[in-house]
Amino acid sequence: MKKVDALDLLVQENNGYITTSEAIKAGVSKQYFGEYVSKRELYRVAHGLYMSQDAWDDGMYIVQVRYPNAVFSHETALYLLNLAEREPLRYAVTLKAGTNAMGLTKNGTKVYKVKTELFEEGLCNAETPAGHNVRTYNAERTICDLIRSRSNIEVQDLQSALKEYVRSKEKNIPMLMRYAGLFSVEKIIRQYLEVLL
To answer: Are 171 and 162 in contact (CB under 8 A)?
Structure first.
C-alpha cells in the first residue's frame, strides 16, 4: 500500500482526524506527513492533530488528544452516558491531584482534581457524537462526582441526572453505594435514593 493510501485510510478510520504520531507509526516520515497535510488541505486543530475539511468538529476528541490524562466527568460524562438532555456549555474533566491544568482552564474547561488512588475508579470509554472514543467515568461514579461537587452544579441538572439514572435499566445500586462510600457521599445518596426509588 502506498504511503498516501495508508494515510488516507487512517484519516477515514478516525472520522476525518489524524495525528502526527499515527502517521509515524504507519512508517511515514514527518517531512512526508507535512507534505500530505498540505496536499490534502488538512486543518491543524491542535499540536500534532489534523482534521480533514469534511470532518465534524469534535471538541471532546480534541481535548482528549491534547490532554490524554484527562477523563471527562460531571456534566460532560452525563452527556456522554445519555443521562443529560443537552451538551454542556463547558466541558468538565477530572485530573489526578497535582497535575498542571493551566492549558485546560485557559480553554474554558472545568477541571476537577481527585486523589491518585480514586482517579481510575469507574473509568470507562464512551463515544462522542462525532464517533470518537474518549475516556469518561461510568454512571455510578458520575453521580458521586456530581453530589461531591453539588455547589458547582445546577440543581436542576443534578436532579434530572438522578431521575434518569434511577429509571435506567443499567443502573447498579450496589456499585453506586460502593463509590458513595469511597467518595464520602453515602448519606446524601441514600437520601436521594429514598425519595426516588
So the answer is: no
